[in-house]
């Protein structure tokens, strides 16, 4: 089941934000995330805020688009009352869950609400996640006609026994079909992969990478499997049915991914993400790592505007109750102090190839840079140019780099 919401301060029922969120807003991008919390089945490794049909307890998928549209209207009022300068959305991202379990008309309606409320910047990126078995050619064409520009398919693996361990339901042979349908519709294509599944060998992982690259995607994500408490996978490991993912094998898998993707013309722009060229990097996700603003719509969605972060109630029924009552669905929030902003900036910006300016580090952290270079974790040439850029070894040990750059923070 999904994990607990973070602790924080109570959020006002009207969602009102402090006046400080308007400071410098004109220099920050604005994105919109729309969470669609529905799945046909729950994958064994997943602890995202998603619900199968028998977990909805009175909430209905057919009502969801209207509720999301209502939150978009509420968001516009909250931002206006906080005197945040009007900004067009630079990115829109439908995530889940499986957004494409909803009819294409519902996703179109939700996107139209964003466009009618804020507008889109020229060339805005509009993405939806999709399971390979949840779309067909007509569905993808309808999304493209509505203004979607990009689709991210949850491929995860090309090896049947790995997909079975992950409780994924699609046939690997469907991947070329959905990619071609997306191409025919004019959509950019991203493929998501997971490595380190119990029982997955390095050769299995090579097969998945080669099959993914054979589709010539514009973008590819590769995430190490994390065993989350409370999931079916964690229970199976605890009972001894499966072994924990091996850290050394996962490191070998990451290195293989970087090797094969680099040889195929992809470049890494974030620790777990590669793109064919700059124009295909996920601008929505980059906005998270760069500390820009976004409004998260839907149950359990998180938002961030001007140093204030908040999160919505988790269950679709509780979310619907708030929306129907005309209240903010926010369950709690926090205002980030200077220390937290600094640590998060280091944590997030160090993960991207663009890096973070060394001049922005505190004095003790700046003295740690030479040691990070000596240990092969930070690119020396980039450091001489004034920024932190992780080496391949540094990407494998990114958490250690962050600790060394923040350990002096009080």
From TrEMBL:
S-adenosyl-L-methionine listed as a keyword: yes
Keyword Disulfide bond: no
Family: Belongs to the anaerobic coproporphyrinogen-III oxidase family. HemW subfamily.
Location (main, coarse): cytoplasm
Domain Radical SAM core as annotated: residue spans: 24-267
Purpose: Probably acts as a heme chaperone, transferring heme to an unknown acceptor. Binds one molecule of heme per monomer, possibly covalently. Binds 1 [4Fe-4S] cluster. The cluster is coordinated with 3 cysteines and an exchangeable S-adenosyl-L-methionine.
Localization, UniProt: Cytoplasm
Name of the protein in its database record: Heme chaperone HemW
Superkingdom of the organism of origin: Bacteria
Keywords, ordered alphabetically: 4Fe-4S, Chaperone, Cytoplasm, Heme, Iron, Iron-sulfur, Metal-binding, S-adenosyl-L-methionine
